[in-house]
Design brief:
Elements (H helix, E strand, L loop, with lengths): L3 H22 L4 E9 L20 E2 L4 E8 L5 E7 L6 H15 L6 E5 L22 H27 L2 E11 L3 E3 L9 H7 L9 E8 L5 E8 L10 E2 L2 H13 L4 E6 L5 E3 L5 H21 L3 E2 L4 E11 L6 H8 L4 H17 L5 E11 L3 E6 L2 E2 L1 H9 L5 E4 L8 E2 L2 H6 L1 H6 L1 H4 L9 H16 L10
Parallel strand pairs: 2-10, 4-5, 9-11, 16-18, 17-19
Antiparallel strand pairs: 1-3, 1-6, 3-4, 6-8, 6-13, 7-12, 8-9, 14-15, 15-16
Helix pairs in contact: 2-3, 5-6, 7-8
Enzyme class: hydrolase
GO molecular function: metal ion binding; N-acylsphingosine amidohydrolase activity
Cofactor: Zn(2+)
Length: 469
């Protein structure tokens, strides 16, 4: 009897201790939280995206959304991804949002990625595309724009706080699919010939038809969020109804397929890519279904690969150089132009000269890189980035790299050196609508690529490989 008591006592100690040991042995996991709110304007205001518009929106085709997804790794490091059904946001609004989020959620700038869908049936926001919109707007219109922008900032901060409050254990996985409706708009003109060229297999120019997909599943294996992207302008529609265009329809479709799941879209490097043919609501819905089907195919028919619960983030702004700046005499000529947009830019540049004594020779261009696990890197670039960048960046790494454009600050088109030399709208012609003084310098691509490579080294997470003893 006395010999059995020590054994029984030891056994009881082991049983009592085993839950603690088991808990310690459980690997740490991701946590994630999602939230969203509508951002469809509730008062009459100008629409963004096209210089030809003169009237406010007359109604709503689909609601516009702001959506937040907070990711937290095993060490407690967080990253916040915001997706907005907007043509873009400017530097001023982006900075204000991030400053408030740092104050309220203790998130540093590198931990916040603000992505926009670039829908051309959304509202004017802040002074984005200022020469096209804000500077030519009436006082009443400017007041409505300011009111909307203030409300937007408040909404974004609120859903970010809600997303943090909704954090729960989850699994992150990633995959890749394909959608083929994006068409290089520079190399396939006129648009009317695109259907016949597609039939004949003679579409020209570079493109990126990849559809990156990130899924968030809770402990019951239920989808909580889907984050996906595509490199194509959201320009199917150009009428006077608020709409998320094809990205809005794609998100709606996915949320119908997966009830309770939050679908979030980010625009890739689609500055020179259009959904063609276009211009009808039926086509916008069609492209949305095709994109949603591509995302669904990745989830249902391919192996979605789990991501290790490790998140590393970095962010910087480089001094992106302009080309030769206009002289004061040339600015005076712009002011006299019969083109109201050229004249508007001239007046803005003249004011800069008066205020500062000179024009800025560079622009603070935002570049951001995240690593999720050791497998996946996510690069966020400001501006309307042409497809050459995503193709070049993906070619630099053997492991998957996703590249979002229209992120953090949409200040201009961002051409590659090739597109810059070719010229045209993306190569420099669009600068007038953004109020920037001239085209970018020939060094633009090298500056951006050098910084991306530097950031990729900073956030690189080494793969876990067995070590021999």
């Amino acid at each position: 009897m006395s010999n059995k008591m020590p054994i029984l006592f030891s056994l009881l100690l082991f049983v009592a201790a085993s839950p603690i040991l088991a808990a310690d042995a459980v690997p740490a996991t991701w946590q994630a939280g999602a939230a969203r709110a509508t951002i469809t304007p509730t008062h009459p205001m100008p629409m963004s995206g096209y210089a030809s518009r003169t009237d406010p929106a007359s109604g709503t085709r689909t609601e516009l959304w702001a959506k937040a997804l907070v990711l937290q790794d095993a060490t407690g490091n967080r990253g916040l991804i915001l997706t907005l059904d907007l043509v873009g946001i400017d530097r001023s609004l982006s900075s204000a949002i991030c400053a408030e989020l740092e104050d309220k959620l203790d998130l540093k700038r590198e931990q916040i990625a603000i992505c926009t869908s670039h829908t051309h049936t959304g509202p004017v926001v802040g002074k984005l595309l200022g020469t096209m919109h804000y500077s030519l707007a009436s006082e009443t219109e400017q007041a409505s724009i300011q009111k909307y922008t203030e409300t937007l900032q408040k909404t974004i901060v609120e859903i970010s706080e809600q997303a943090v409050a909704n954090l729960q254990e989850c699994e992150l996985a990633y995959g890749l699919s394909t959608a083929t409706f994006a068409t290089n708009r520079r190399d396939n003109r006129p648009e009317s010939e695109v259907p016949s060229r597609r039939t004949a297999g003679t579409l020209a120019g570079p493109f990126d038809h990849s559809v990156p997909v990130l899924t968030v599943r809770d402990n019951n294996n239920e989808l909580q969020a889907i984050l996906f992207g595509y490199a194509c302008h959201a320009t199917t529609l150009g009428d006077q109804l608020w709409s998320g265009d094809y990205p809005g329809f794609a998100q709606q479709e996915l949320e119908t397929i997966y009830p309770g799941c939050q679908a979030m879209f980010w625009a890739g490097c689609g500055a020179d890519q259009n959904p063609l043919p276009r211009r009808t609501p039926e086509l916008a819905a069609h492209y949305g279904r095709r994109l949603a089907t591509a995302v669904d195919a990745a989830i249902m028919t391919t192996e979605m690969l789990p991501l290790e619960p490790t998140l590393k983030t970095t962010y910087s702004e480089i001094d992106l150089a302009f080309g030769t700046l206009p002289t004061e005499a040339e600015i005076d000529q712009q002011i006299q132009s019969k083109d109201r947009f050229v004249a508007s830019r001239g007046k803005q540049l003249k004011q800069q000269l008066a205020d500062n004594g000179s024009l800025d020779a560079t622009y603070p261009y935002p570049i951001q890189t995240w690593s999720l696990g050791s497998q996946l890197q996510f690069v966020f670039l400001g501006g309307e980035v042409v497809v050459d960048y995503s193709l070049a960046i993906q070619a630099t790494r053997e492991q998957p790299t996703w590249v979002a454009g229209y992120s953090n600050d949409v200040m201009a088109y961002i051409p590659s050196r090739r597109v810059l030399q070719e010229g045209g709208y993306e190569g420099g012609g669009a600068m007038v609508y953004y109020g920037l003084p001239t085209a970018w310098a020939p060094t633009v691509e090298k500056q951006i690529m050098d910084e991306i490579k530097s950031q990729q080294r900073v956030v690189q997470v080494p793969s876990e490989t067995p070590t021999s003893k």
